[in-house]
Specification:
The structure is a homopentamer of 371-residue chains. Chain A has helices at residues 2-9, 68-71, 88-98, 102-109, 167-175, 180-183, 186-221, 228-245, 248-257, 268-330, 339-342, 346-367; strands at residues 13-15, 46-52, 57-62, 77-83, 116-120, 123-133, 139-150, 154-159. By secondary structure, chain A is of the alpha+beta class. In chain A, strands 1, 2, 3, 4, 5, 6, 7 and 8 form an eight-stranded mixed beta sheet that branches. In chain A, helix 7 (186-221) packs antiparallel against helix 8 and helix 7 packs parallel to helix 10. Chain A is rod-shaped and about 120 Å long. The relative contact order of chain A is 0.10. Chains in contact: A-B, A-E, B-C, C-D, D-E. Chains A and B meet through helix 5, helix 7 and helix 10 of A and helix 8, helix 10, helix 11 and helix 12 of B.
Chain lengths: 371, 371, 371, 371, 371
């Protein structure tokens, strides 16, 4: 339990740290001149080819740049999965091979560009963010993902670095001979990848939600135990997640309404489903932000309440001693003619006054509910 | 009265505890592979068959999985009410029997999925949340409800566990020979169930509204009597309710506009009415949240006012004794040449100074309205 | 002036007290079974018949339930004004007589149902809230109003209890022989009644606005004179008014756009005008709420400022006496070797030190603008 | 500079004081019975006739009510400018002369009615607010303005009282022989008047903006110099302005889209331009409100910061003297056996302790940055 | 690092200082009379001619006003770049030469007018704000930019003063023989200039984002190190930027949807791209404002927390000494019969009481977590 808490309290590390304004291409550069914008996230650029039909699967790490005609057979689904975006020239060659326009290649390379969907006559192009958090880890891996659906059952995907997010899909292809993914086309594969992406959003939300619940518990126990910085961090994390996920609405909505020869009728219900998931993820993220706000309000109110309580008790304390000290001061005066000073029972009487005074004030404070 | 209050103050227990991010199906699983997501809420999975026409009613707990052709006669309304969603294989068989696609079955099984409505050519499918609070209890039972309207007057409903929410409808079917429910078709039955669901929303709202009114009364009497935690809980409850109810707008709105052969013309006004109820429920929930916010504002203002008052009185108190103590201190000094000390009436005179000083300050504070 | 203030300060009494969640019909009840939901507001249920054409007016309290064919002549406008909704059976008979469907009758009886407009082929049905405040009184009378426009110039209105709100319209009918109301049909009468309803909204708004203005004046004079509870009450009143008035937008908007044979072309501009009034009333209510918010902000700022001022003055005061008391304490010490004690001018010198010290601190506080 | 400041600080006087709920016509009154609602703002009701074509201008204060046929020649633009709305009978006659319906006349007379635009077949009717602030003055003159564009190049305008707002337009007509205003028709004149109205909005905004800038400067110099009441007044002024200007969007938007034979093609770009101005004025007003909010936030933060600073310094001060006074108190005790009292260097040693103690605490406070 | 911080802390200087209400043309002026509104920003008005086709580039500072027919050949792109707007007569001549209407010229000259786009049959006219911040500088240069696309590949741009913002575009024209900019028409050039404008927005956002990040770091280290004024300045800067950028949505959106013969099909994707950039810039600005708000919340909470902590420690301190001083005061009393005074170990015993008392209270405060 304590370990759980500690895990939740360790702040999330976002890689790369999301910045509002992203590096943009140098202005002097003509558009269409390709340049990689972003960190180098992978050691080397790799292309994995996964080709399959109902009866056979072929998974291969390509050593050279693929030639399309070499691999692509319309009867098979051919998926080129490119990881690493820093070797621009290779991508340029790849682009030419697959007939990808330079503007599209630019969007693939600009890792800071806004998630969006573009539908052209012979391609559907989706840019989005893949957000992966490994179970038990605190590192949130935010990657630029581009999915390009081409005719003849060809799918090309681009990712900044290798990620485990798509492993389950690959596993499903490999193992599920005769399963739906093997019977359907590249559009279904595109759906499966985007659905995996949305699933991974849910895992990050889940993680933050756990942090919120754990902080809620701690606040209920002892509000002063929580630090302002922690709450602020939670709020920032929720905000960053929201900003990264926000454009998903447009993308899944578009895909749902899209009328393209690249999308078969039988995969349509899956994209409708994807849209539902997208909306749910968005709503959940908004609810998460609201929860964090509510936590913050509660925290502030609790801290302020506690502070007030402290001040009240202490001030009451001070107020009780003020008249007592005054009385003691009176009999510390050096007047020659102070008849009380000579009375034998005066000293105990003053003690009585002290006691009465203190008791009276205590009673008054209790009645007023100040103590 | 006290009992009333105590009841209202006992916090609501939500079952299951609504979490923002719900467990999702494992990513590796191919969609269409059925898996139950959520807690096991019922002991065993049961199917109740309620078949009726104008003249006869038949209510039967089925021991085996129903075969559709066995029961369904188009002239009769046939309602299969399934409670318990954990026995996946049985549901799968049922699905095949009734021609329910796997995607629909998945939505039925994923108890965390978002309320929605789907209209296909030969079915209307509604997923929603049934929220039931038993009178006098504090347990809010949130269940995943699926309603599937099929041709030939067949209605299939799925619920996580048995619930008293639909008992009145069943009672109406049983008793009301010749009543409207017995004369109309399965679409009317679907309306009756959804209307019962919306009615139950109102009961929960009503319960929270009572809690708000009771807290309002307590705040008016003595703001400090209320605890921050209670207000926060009320806010959270209102928020959870709102999140659960929010999608009802889409559902009832869709049903109202829906043009489907499954909905007869004569039931149309009832769905319009349902839409009105849905909107009213939503507006009321929003108003509830606003009331809670207003309560919170009032509470904070009242607490802060009270604190200020306490501090003011106490500080005035302290300020009165400071000069008095100073004067006493003066005549406690041991200078050899202090002419006042030898004057016989000096001591009573100092008492006079004390009294004047205190009275003057009291008068000043009163005039300034600080006391 | 004082009387004015006192009047404004007395809180409004809402009858019935608006509650968020209203009692709903028992779920087990089949829809269409009529039941009165709400308080019994009138002693007995009465039907007033007002029939008129350009040349004659007939106003009659009907002792028995009216038979439509008996009274209604298409050339005359026939208005049946029903007050009191608790005698359900009578209403049921009336409904049958006028061909009012049970669903409409239900909406008439459910005093908590949401204001709305329904247009059917042969009727226009408006449910709304009549909100009346008598001048000089504090009681806000909120009544459920149903207006049913039928063919052949028949208008039926239902009200929970008699109300003075429609008296001016009746007066206009009675006195204004040859006036527009006597020349136009039942649609114009419906407009006149709804316009009177909107006018009465303005009177309530006006009353609250006066309360806001009066509180504003009091805040400007002396912010601490105002109580948090009063502001909260004002806010709650404005909120309740807003919630009751809010649906007017739909109703007047619909009527403005409505294309129905029941509405003559010549009354059209009046419904456009009604829509303008409706929008103005809504905007004004929103502005009212904003004014109350602004008042509250100002109040909080003023109270906090005043508190700060009090604390500042008092703390300065305390700070001045602390060093003085310390100095007095020094010379109260009983050391044998304190050379100052024997110096003849030491005592007056200490007084000088006291004066200098106090003056120096006062000067410092003034320069820092703390006093 | 000081004069500037003083001018800005003097609060704006709104004439008439905008009230949320305006006096409405007595309910008993049949609509169409004309009655003037609002203050009497002008001494007497006057009609100014301005008739012009490219070659000649005629400006005349009419002593009697104009007869339309007498003045209006389609080749000339004829502008009847009515100031003063309290002589209802005259307006009624005028209305008949010009074929103005009673409903329109009512809108002209109800000075509290909402700004709007109405397009009928043979007239365009705009009701709006003219808001004029004289340079160097603090009086904001809010007037009810009605503009009525009729066929045959006739324009009739109604204003509560004479206002300098339209003088520049009249000057342009008078002087600009051959200028555009003399060549174009009455629609251009209507545009010119509405544009002058929007310009005058900008002047009021400008005035408030200056007040905001000046208060900003004062806040930056010394936040405590500013009074809560001033900020509240600024906020209220900005709110009142916003409420008065808000409906301009509808009016200019409508005029821009309007397809009417009364609007010539060549004046169309001017109405597009007017729409731009209207939008800019609205946006600027919204920005103004936001600026005032930001000011208020800054003020509250600054005041609270300053207060905190004051409290901190003073409390540190108090804390330093507490232990000193305690030590002095110790050696003021009258025990017979206090060895320190007899030590010759004890007194100076105590002074050393005092100094050390004070210095230590000062150092501690400085290190903690509390001072 | 320190240098970085210092740079970020120096507030941005906006030139010209954005004011809400801008000087408007004198009302008396007939529209179409040209007048320059705004500061004189450039020494002299200059026209630079840049004419190019695929094979040749010609860049020339024109000494006289250009005659259109002299320079413009449809086969070449001819760009007239005017800097300085104060020489109105020259612009008027230019306008006539290029057939620019007076209304358009007015918009060019009114530097305070709202960004907008206007499409006429033979021209596309964009008014916007160019916002440039030089790297390492704090001066934000806000200029009024007008772009006018005319037939025959003519582009005319107007800028208040020379700016380095368009240098990269000019460089691309000059150097990139055979590049896209040289092969495409004037519409592509317009795109390139607007894209450069949007890029420059990003640089300013980036600068503010850095300031936010740097302030965030400082807040995390020591919240009291940050001044309210700095946060307010940041907020104001973000607000000003937002207001200046806000209209970009309309402009890029319009350009994207625009169907004009002046826009070639092949430049269409670039305008789609520009729209994406515009949206991203807007979203980023909104996120920036949100970040500043969050910073402010965190700052306020941190300052208040710190203040509370200070007060708590100090008050505890005071509370410890109050009873001690009281006890010392007791034995400073001069009663003749105080048996304790004669006891030899009384003095050390009192010291023991002092120690116990202080220790007890310290223990109590620690247990209550007040220290």
């Amino acid at each position: 339990m304590v370990g759980e808490k500690l895990m939740d309290r360790s702040p999330l590390k976002w890689i790369p740290l999301p910045r509002l304004a992203r590096k943009k291409r140098p202005v002097a550069l003509s558009p269409g001149s390709l340049i990689h914008l972003g960190q180098k996230r992978a050691e080397s650029q790799e292309v994995t080819l996964i080709a399959y039909d109902e009866s056979s699967v072929e998974i291969e790490k390509l050593r050279e740049l693929p030639e399309k005609h070499h691999y692509s057979i319309p009867e098979k689904v051919t998926w080129f999965h490119v990881t690493g975006l820093h070797e621009v020239e290779k991508l340029s060659v790849l682009g030419e091979e697959f007939g990808i326009s330079n503007l599209v290649l630019e969007d693939i390379l600009s890792t800071g560009s806004r998630p969006k969907i573009e539908k052209r006559d012979t391609e559907i192009f989706v840019v989005s963010k893949l957000i992966v958090i490994e179970p038990g880890q605190n590192t949130v891996d935010v990657q630029h993902l581009a999915v390009l659906l081409l005719p003849d059952n060809v799918l090309v995907t681009f990712l900044e670095a290798p990620s485990p997010a798509f492993d389950p899909v690959i596993e499903r292809i490999r193992s599920g001979s005769g399963g739906r993914i093997r019977r359907f086309g590249a559009d279904y594969l595109a759906w499966a990848l985007l659905d995996a992406m949305v699933d991974n959003y849910l895992y990050v939300i889940d993680r933050l939600d756990e942090a919120v619940a754990s902080m809620d518990d701690r606040l209920q126990l002892d509000a002063t135990d929580v630090d302002t910085g922690e709450l602020y961090e939670l709020k920032r994390d929720a905000g960053q997640l929201y900003r990264a996920i926000r454009p998903i609405r447009e993308i899944t909505g578009s895909l749902n309404r899209l009328d393209s020869p690249l999308l078969e009728e039988r995969t349509r219900p899956f994209f409708t489903d994807l849209n539902d998931h997208g909306l749910q993820v968005l709503e959940t993220t908004e609810d998460l932000r609201e929860s964090v706000s509510a936590l913050r309000d509660f925290y502030l109110a609790a801290v302020s309440n506690r502070m007030n309580e402290v001040m009240k008790v202490l001030t009451c304390f001070a107020t009780i001693f003020l008249p007592l000290t005054f009385i003691a001061g009176i009999y510390g005066m050096n007047f020659e003619h102070m008849p009380e000073l000579g009375v034998p029972w005066a000293y105990p009487a003053v003690w009585g006054v002290f006691a009465l005074c203190a008791a009276g004030m205590l009673w008054f404070f209790r009645r007023k509910k100040w103590l």
